[in-house]
Amino acid sequence: MRQKLVDLLTKYRSLLLVGVGLPVGFVFDAVLRARARAYELLGAAPERHDEKVREIQEQVRRWASQPANERRPMCTDRRTWMNLSTRFEPKHTWHKVRMGALRDVLGLDEQARTVRVEPFVTVGQAMRFLAKRGYMLAVHLEIADATIGGLALAAGMTTHSHKVGMLFETVVAYEVVLADGSLVRVTKDSHPDLFRAMGWSHGTLGLLVGVELAVVPIKKYVHMRYVPVHSQQGYCDEMYRLANADDAPHFLEATVYAKDRAVIMCGDFADEPEGPAERAKINHVGRWYKPWFYKHVETFAERGGDEYIPLQDYILRHNRSIFWVVAHMIPEGNHPLFRALLGWMMPPRIAFLKFSTTPAVRKMTFTMQVFQDIVLPMSAMKRAIDLVDERFEMFPILLYPSRVYDHGEAGGQLPRPFPEDIVPGKDYAMYFDLGVYGVPGPIQRGLPFKTVHAMRAMEAFTASVRGFPFLYADTFMTREEFEVMFDLRLYRQVRERYGASAAFPDLYDKIRPEVDVLAVLDEERELDTTLAD
User: Fold this and answer.
1) Are 457 and 387 in contact (CB under 8 A)?
2) Of 20, 51, 135, 147, which has the most beta carbons under 10 Å away?
3) Vertex 506, ends 502 and 508: CA angle to 5°?
4) Contact 267, 250 (CB under 8 A)
5) Helix (H) or strand (E) holding 77
6) Amino acid 491: pLDDT
7) How confident is the model over 163-186, as a mean pLDDT?
8) 486, 459 Cβ separation under 8 angstroms
9) Cα–Cα dist 342/358, whole Å
10) Cα dihedral across residues 500, 505, 508, 510: positive or negative
11) What's residue 87's pLDDT?
12) pLDDT number for residue 524
């Protein structure tokens, strides 16, 4: 019965999404957005920040007063379906601390160029606050609903990361409630060990109640240049050159449409263009009737070119098609007629899709599709793309360059870059985010495919070059493999020093596979027998 349901959902997925998922999800999302906007306009109370934090401290102290054998690890009360992770955390087994009121922007320091926010402030909310004052986050995710607290404790990365690194590298201070209920302001000077371990800790060292991070001044437009490249070695070399150049563009990314065909995008802030010829190049790519951004970029794959994109449209350029994931959900979604009639409801709302996910559908999502961001040294770019082509047979793929700083021995959870990957004269290596999203080629052709086997092969390659995957996505590593990939020495020291070991879930337990990986591998091995027969 379950398999029949999965088969039906797979066969009629597009029709169900268009006929039910889009309208219901749109209403679902509209209610959430209206509630959030009403809060911003009428309910925001940044002046109550200290009071709200004291309430959280009191909850933690009550937890700490319980007998040790009755305590469960603490976590926030944010519902799993509301976050952007593909995983479903087992929060029902943990002690939830009520923190939902922490969603206010607390202030902008223009002299220091920092903004202070509560953890559940979203990227979109911060964008609205900062843009009116001439700024944006130094690392600004493309998804408006992502929370800044979640990104600060995990892996925010954008097309400006080749200049500043990942989002946690732009954090000036964390405000954290520790396991005993005390409140500390964590900076590189006051608590250097905890400060360095907070990034990539995923909320397992304390409860984040505030964060201060860097902003950059903005202009109204992004002047985008599209550079077509028709060889694999060519775009690998050019991306490395551009990322490390003294005059590197403010924004840098590439979309690879085939192994030997890519478009590199170089963007810089610009004022409103003058003159008819330049003004004709203004393109509001975010409007609902416009082609999906990655399909628009593909039109430059032969001739190249440039245009001016309003800043907000640029930042959320991949939002309507969720990069190219929606193309697998709704193949006709980029058709001009579909965009004209239904484009205003796009994309399918992630929160609604997670809210309505059943266990059978959940299993389908990680056995029949891939949604991964994998961070690798740029020296491994060609090999990584070859492996994606060999294992998954899927394009397009995304390339974002990013600095990964060398913080020294046991300097944080991320693996330390190989010395040969360090940029000469710098304290960082140039890595890149490899975005692999969608349905593997064999599955698209109706063939059996061992998705988990393929993902584990990718994870093994990633570990071999001292890379790492973003942990919002499904991982299939055992605990032993996870501890080989990541450097947990400082993390464990900090867990003990600040009492987190008995108070918060372990990092691996927070992101571990939701399924028995060995059982899934056994199921996939049966495909070999089936194919042989």
Assistant:
1) yes
2) 147
3) 165
4) yes
5) none
6) 97
7) 97
8) no
9) 26
10) negative
11) 58
12) 59
Contact call for residues 373 and 469 (beta carbons, < 8 A): yes
Residue 191: HSE in the Cβ half-sphere, 13 Å Cα cutoff:
20
pTM of the model: 0.89
User: How far is the CA of 222 from the CAs of 156, 245, 315, in angstroms?
Assistant: 21, 19, 9
> What counts of helices (H) and strands (E) characterise the chain?
23, 16
Burial class (CB in 10 A: 0-12, 13-18, 19+), 361: middle
End-to-end CA, the chain: 25
Is the model's pLDDT at 88 over the cut of 80? no
Model confidence band, residue 365 (pLDDT cutoffs 50, 70, 90): low
Q: Are 494 and 193 in contact (CB under 8 A)?
A: yes
Closest CA to 486 of 419, 415, 435, 433: 415
Question: pLDDT at position 532, please?
Answer: 45
Give the sign of the dihedral formed by CA 147, CA 153, CA 157, CA 163.
positive
Rounded to whole angstroms, the Cα distance separating 406 from 98 reads: 36
Type and span of the H or E element at 198:
helix 192-198
- From the centroid of its chain, how far is CA 481? 22
- 210 has a pLDDT exceeding 80: yes
Condensed to tens digits (0 to 9), the pLDDT of residues 227-261 reads 999 999 999 999 999 999 999 999 999 999 999 99
Residues 6 or more apart in contact with residue 135 via CB below 8 angstroms: 108, 110, 113, 115, 215, 216, 217, 218
Contacts of 449 (CB under 8 A, 6+ apart): 368, 440, 442, 443, 527
Alpha helices by DSSP H, 397-450: 441-444
pLDDT of residue 368: 77
Q: Are 176 and 117 in contact (CB under 8 A)?
A: no
Alpha helix positions (H), 310-411 = 311-315, 325-329, 336-342, 350-355, 359-367, 381-391
Banded pLDDT at 143 (limits 50, 70, 90):
confident
- Tokens found for residue 126: 């911060």
Whether the Cβ atoms of residue 426 and residue 185 lie closer than 8 Å to each other: no
Residues 6 or more apart whose Cβ sits within 8 Å of residue 483: 508
Structure-token pair, residue 467: 């890379």
Q: Which of these, 240, 326, 328, lies nearest to 291 by C-alpha position?
A: 326
Sign, CA torsion 26/32/38/44: negative
Structure tokens at 302: 């032969």
Q: How many CA atoms lie within 13 A of 132 on its CB side?
A: 6
Helix, strand, coil shares, percent, the chain, to 5: 45, 20, 35
Count of beta carbons in the 10 Å neighbourhood of residue 314 = 23
